[in-house]
Amino acid sequence: MEDRLREMAEAARTALREAASLDELDQARARYLGRSGVLRDIQQGIRDLAKELRPQVGQLINQTRAELERILEERRQELEAGQAHLRVARDSIDVTLPGRSQPVAGRHPLLATLDDMLEIFLGLGYTIAEGPEVEDNYYGFEALNYPPDHPAMDEQMTFYIADDVLLRSQTSPVQIRVMETQEPPVRVVVPGRCFRRDTVDATHSHTFHQLEGLCVDEGVTFADLKGTLLAFARGMFGPEARVRFRPDFFPFTEPSAEFAVSCFACAGEGCRVCQGSGWMELGGAGMVDPNVLAGVGYDTERYTGFAFGVGIERFAMNRYGIPDMRLLYSGDMRMLRQF
After folding, report:
1. CB neighbours (10 Å) of residue 1?
2. Which residue among 62, 88, 99, 215 has the highest number of C-beta atoms inside a 10 angstrom radius?
């Protein structure tokens, strides 16, 4: 039995000291020191020995158990210390490493374009006005000099919520609201969302954004309108930009014009961007119709004014080379990360 005990003790020492992990150490403990372990089996064999040998063998078993438990505890502390060191090394922060910058969100091309537009007009002395997106028929059409049978008032063109309540198709109703509460001089720009029953495609949407401007004062002429839009175009597209006006019609301006800017991509020579014309249409403009001024109580013999409106999406698409308007509303990060 003593020989067996010595062989077991030597094997146990080796297993405990060479355990590479806490799991292996626990397996070695169970094999040699557990309730069903080898040492327990040897201890139960004492009853088969002669009475005079039992105390000596029992003392030897206890000494072996104490030695193995000491080795077990020493190895456990070594393994736990090694794991703690690895954990600290893994979780530690090397303050000498260069910082890793996080991506910073940029401005959406629509908002970036609008901000630049507003900055130009604020520099020209304009203020910003806003109004409701849900309007009644008076502000949406009647006060803007639309005749009762105008096609824009048809349900196929305008979103109606009720018989006399609609989603505004342009920001022009804000002009009326401003003039009703303010005496001339008036110089405001109106950014906002508009709604029309357009078929959604690469260049149209049922929901879009518009920037409208209004100037009313004594002695305001069409030349002032042209100078204002020229300053605006050069602020957006550079000092070489030119503007062009062609006759058009809008119920709330007379005379009315379509205005365009020389193509920023080809400087007016003709290219794919401007479809060979050398010009890019930007919006509508004109002198405020006297009927509109009279409707808000302005003296039409004393005051004149001009108004203009541009689509912000069109500016953004031309400015950033975006081929499809739907990309502006898609939320596709592959597109938005470019800005």
Report:
1. 14
2. 215
Whether the CA torsion 108, 258, 176, 144 is positive or negative: it is negative
- Measured between alpha carbons, how far is 252 from 145 in angstroms, rounded to an integer? 5
Q: Which two tokens stand for residue 133?
A: 């997106």
Pull the structure tokens for residue 196: 């029309």
Length of the chain: 339
Contact call for residues 8 and 15 (beta carbons, < 8 A): no
Looking at residue 298, the DSSP 8-state letter turns out to be: -
Q: Cβ–Cβ contacts within 10 Å for residue 47, how many? A: 7
Structure tokens at 124: 């020209």
Tell me 206's DSSP state. Answer: S
Q: Are 178 and 129 in contact (CB under 8 A)?
A: yes
pTM: 0.66
For residue 319, with 0-12 CB atoms within 10 Å meaning exposed, 13-18 middle and 19 or more buried, which class applies?
Answer: middle
Q: What is the pLDDT of residues 306-330, one digit of tens each?
A: 999 998 988 888 788 888 888 888 8
**How many whole angstroms separate alpha carbon 259 and alpha carbon 280?**
9
Q: How many CB atoms lie within 10 A of CB 169?
A: 21
